[in-house]
């Protein structure tokens, strides 16, 4: 099961030759710079672009196979498509917009109920409104609910947050996370924003100039030193943690992961809850011995897996902390001073971390 895709297509001066496999559930990010071919690949998957050479299999069904002349037209592919612009019908209420695709789906094929979509995207109070009066974030939530109500076997999202301001993005991200947790529909999510990928993706397909340069789990894609994400100025690793307990005296919360326990300021989190932490490479430093007198609470035994030069003055370290991987950006001078070598045991200290959900 899952998604297996391969397309070869020329568009003017651009050529796409991209193949990938993605799991049949969760969010797979198609990530790359502007012009790397993400939207073109998504359009091929939707059947909006007919690649001369192409094969697409979704959960065991072949939607396209150029060698056999098989090409399921877009309207026969069970997909939901969410674009940057919501594209709602302006003369219809939110409720009518939602019903549009839903009514055309045979009752026996409906996988998402109207109430469920309304609840998941928090649309209860908006149903009677016209799209024109909604905020950008609200309109996009309606568009996502509408896509879900077409009962897709695959949800395609092409930079759904790109046209929104920061506040609307922040408002909509929790809804996207809920979809992820509560629906079994696989999502292909096009983005060039590393923070969205860190927050939402389970699996990442990296595109560069129309080619897939890497595919795999989220943290590997974020932390492999030979891949562009780790070399980005905003590079960060993601660590999955579980809320352990609160310390009422010092107003702290403890988060466990297989490499130890993070301490953060007290947050309204429930013990047992699972979440992601994002830790920027620039916020991690290393010491050879466990630091004695320090105000930094988050210090972990680590092992240096790999190091790579970033530029004349900076190095990037890939650190193994239990089962987790962290990145650290340090000066070449510090690395020489510490005599760092791959395989070496160290201590990693993190100055700052961000909760992602
Ligand atoms: N119909 C077309 N004719 C000619 N060139 C095209 C056509 N559509 C896309 N291209 C080119 O193909 C390349 C890939 O475009 P695509 O939109 O897939 O990239 P992208 O990674 O999604 O970029 P962005 O993040 O900016 O949307 C670009 O160089 C684009 O100019």
UniProtKB/TrEMBL annotation:
Annotated ABC transporter domain residues: 1-234
Cited SMART domains: AAA
GO cellular component labels: membrane
Domain Mop intervals: 293-357
Gene3D superfamilies registered for this protein in UniProt: 2.40.50.100, P-loop containing nucleotide triphosphate hydrolases (3.40.50.300)
Pfam families in the record: ABC_tran, TOBE
Keywords, sorted A to Z: ATP-binding, Cell inner membrane, Cell membrane, Membrane, Molybdenum, Nucleotide-binding, Translocase, Transport
PROSITE patterns: ABC_TRANSPORTER_1, ABC_TRANSPORTER_2, MOP
Record-level Gene Ontology MF annotations: ABC-type transporter activity; ATP binding; ATP hydrolysis activity; molybdate ion transmembrane transporter activity
NCBIfam families: modC_ABC (TIGR02142)
Protein name as annotated: Molybdate transport system ATP-binding protein
Organism (species): Thioalbus denitrificans
